[in-house]
Amino acid sequence: MAAPPAPEPTAEPTAEPTAESGAGPRLARSGLRFLLRRRRALAALACWSLLQSAQTFLMGLGVARALDRGFLAGDPAAGLRWLALTAAGVALGALSAARVHRAVAGLVEPLRDRLVTGVAEDALRGTASAPGVVSRLGHQTELARDSFAGLILVAQTFVFTLAGAVAGLAALAPALLLVVLPPLLLGLAVFGCALPPLARRQRAVLEADEALAACLGETFAGLRDITACGAEDRAAAETGERVTRELNAARALARWGLFRSLALGLGGHLPLPLLLLTAPWLLERGVTAGALAGALTYLSQALLPALHTLMDGVAGALTRLQVVLTRLRPVGRGPEACGPPAAEAAPDEAAGPARGLAWDAAPGVAESTARGAGRDAAPEAAPAPTALLARGVAPQAVPGSTAPAAGVAPGAVAGAASGSGAPPALELRGLRFAYGGRSQALFSGLDLVLPAGGHLAVVGPSGTGKSTLAALAAGLLAPTAGEVLLNGRPAAGLGAAEAARLRVLLPQDSYVFTGTVRENLAYLRPGPTPDAALLEAARAVGAEAVVERLGGPGGRVAPEELSAGERQLLALARAWAAPAPLVLLDEATCHLDPAAEARAERAFARRPGGALLVVAHRISSARRASRVLVLDGEDHVTGTHARALARSPLYRDLAAGWAPPGRKDPEAPRPDPSDPARVA
Ligand SMILES: Nc1ncnc2c1ncn2[C@@H]1O[C@H](COP(=O)(O)OP(=O)(O)OP(=O)(O)O)[C@@H](O)[C@H]1O
After folding, report:
1. Residue located nearest, by CA, to atom 10 of ligand 1
2. Which is the closest atom of ligand 1 to the Cα of 586?
3. CA 608: distance to chain centroid?
4. What is the pLDDT of residues 123-138, one digit of tens each?
5. Domain segments of the chain: what residues?
6. What is the pTM of this model?
7. Cα–ligand 1 centroid distance for 605 (angstroms)
8. Does ligand 1 come within 6 angstroms of the Cβ of 333?
9. CA–centroid distance, residue 468 to ligand 1 (Å)
């Protein structure tokens, strides 16, 4: 069964993240309540801001009077006095700016205290993870404070500048207001309408960017597993989808950004030419040349910059504040990494706005879920390839691949038969390989045939190329010369997904991912798999106790809570349940004790029609195989255990101290007369 197709990237990002619908207005209301409870700080802010209004007021008035009563009236001294008064207003404004910042601090510091207290209390209650607490106590609360301060300053500057300019225009000539106010109000109305969608689009860009970053992080960290599972196409498709989503979100934001420009044009720029166009009409009604110049000063020096700051800053600050506050006290989900969409998340993770917002209450700032916390998620909670694997999409489901039929019994190998006529599971023809042109070749002309049902152990000292051989056999490395055939097909010509259908490679560090036991064990199987089949796989390799302890197929797997051996057992069960004809164990049982290792290897050797290549880290492992390949520098010896003993001094050394002579060997391999494994 093919996996459900990945959702088509939408032309426009979802306007409102579902779980956070209504969070904006609720934040605004609770923010207002927060401010109203601090009337003294508000009053101080208003008082000092009035001085800024006075500065604005004097700015245009001073220019007008300097012209009308000074320079144009032939009294330059009066003109200079008015200009001096205007300069004094500027000094007054500078003084008030410092006080305004202090008053703003009186409003925003309590917010930070409140946030810090809440996070600390959560940490003490043990409901927050350490990395999350550190980030929330530091970066996130600072971001909330800065965004809140920015919002207050932008709003305060605009309101008090507007008040000063309107008062000044009224003082110069009320007729000026008739020209200036209508476009200004129209611009503000347009901006007011565009602000909520703008903030949503800005938020969508932020979330798309975070999701892409999280997805890329997981993908890069899990590259080896992605390659081993043949999931490159899938990973590329998902990453590409995130890129497209971010692109679409950015385009949507840019489209809505046009309204911001329109609003600025109407409210800030249009009054200037209007004043010039209506100058004759205004002059007829007694407006002086100085008053006109003063009005132009108000527009260009005060209103336009204030509008610019408001329209540029408010949407971004609002969005940042909303995002940070909802994360500190989550009402929804954080950045979505490469993983199942929200609907697939565990119910506890998808919890909606059940809690209050960060403004309202110091205690109880909630721990984000591993997903909701985005980059704060405990790093160990979901190992790198998790998201890719957790999608439950087997590599066979990669578009374009030919998936084997669903419902293959565990341990039964799809398309493989041990009978005559079946192609070998693995064949190496004249294999030559060196890492780089100048390195010594690890293999030069190695021939090897591993038939369906065969069991080969690769042994040799460290660094002789055992893992390299496994990677070559898996098609993960390309030979310098010669050929690797998987099930009779050149590995070089296989797509990643097709190669993954023909072999499973288990490295020393086995990966399990956050999800259910079922998802972990069934990952390499196409289509739905009955639990009984998964339990059978677990039993076969000796993982039943781990599965039981985790709560059966539906139990949750937390990789960081498993020992290395337990992780290996789950990975072995997954490989055993896979329909691939060839299993390559590259020291994949190194964390198991000898008895557990023996049980797992025998289980793989018994897989009907399945071939096994084991990179052995214990000589007992080699003893169980029907053929042994001894890597000893340029010399390769292969054959049965007896033949290897006879022909390879190295193998004799490795086997020394093994079973005492004459003792019945419990690891003696089953007779395998049909196995034509050979090395030239
Ligand atoms: N990516 C690489 N680039 C260059 N040289 C490499 C690379 N990987 C491995 N080698 C070298 O190739 C040789 C064989 O490495 P390989 O890991 O296959 O040996 P091994 O027999 O599996 O060793 P061990 O038993 O210690 O795991 C070593 O000398 C190693 O340093």
Report:
1. 435
2. 22
3. 41
4. 777 665 555 666 667 7
5. 27-339, 421-512+563-655
6. 0.50
7. 26
8. no
9. 6
The DSSP-derived string for 80-93 is HHHHHHHHHHHHHH
- C-alpha 440 – ligand 1 centre gap (Å): 12
**Ligand 1 neighbourhood includes 464 CB (under 6 angstroms):** yes
In Å, the largest CA–CA distance within the chain is: 127
As given in the structure block, the two tokens for residue 232 are 């490159």
What gap in Å lies between CA 67 and CA 60, rounded to an integer?
A: 11
Task: Choose the residue to mutate in 431, 432, 467 for probing ligand 1, maximizing ligand atoms within 8 Å of C-beta.
Answer: 467
**CB of 281 sitting under 6 A from ligand 1:** no
Q: What is the pLDDT of residues 348-407, one digit of tens each?
A: 333 333 333 344 433 332 223 222 333 332 323 333 333 333 333 233 222 223 233 333
CB 335 near ligand 1, within 6 Å: no
The residues of the chain scoring below 50 in pLDDT are 1-21, 330-336, 339-408, 415-419, 660-680
Strands of the 503-506 sheet, one edge to the other: 503-506, 582-586, 611-615, 455-459, 627-632, 635-639
328's tokens:
């500190």
User: Would you say 116 and 138 are in contact if contact means Cβ atoms under 8 Å apart?
Assistant: no
Residue 459 forms beta bridges with which residues? Answer: 630
Q: What one-character DSSP code corresponds to residue 136?
A: I
CATH of domain 27-339: 1.20.1560.10
* Ligand 1 contact via 465 beta carbon (within 6 Å): yes
* Residue type for position 503: R
Same fold for the pair 27-339 and 421-512+563-655: no
Q: Which architecture, in CATH terms, is 421-512+563-655? A: 3-Layer(aba) Sandwich (3.40)
The pair of three-digit structure tokens given for residue 452, joined into one six-digit string: 């369906």
Q: Is 265 in the pocket of ligand 1 (CB under 6 A)?
A: no
Nearest Cα residue to 90 out of 55, 130, 134: 55
Cβ atoms of residues 174 and 354 within 8 Å: no
**Is 562 within 8 Å of 512 (Cβ atoms)?**
yes
**Cβ(459) – ligand 1 distance below 6 Å:** no
CA angle 391, 393, 394 (to 5 degrees): 140
Closest CA relative to residue 67, chosen from 180, 172, 164, 178: 172
Strand pairing report for 582-586 and 611-615: parallel
86 lines ligand 1 (CB under 6 A): no
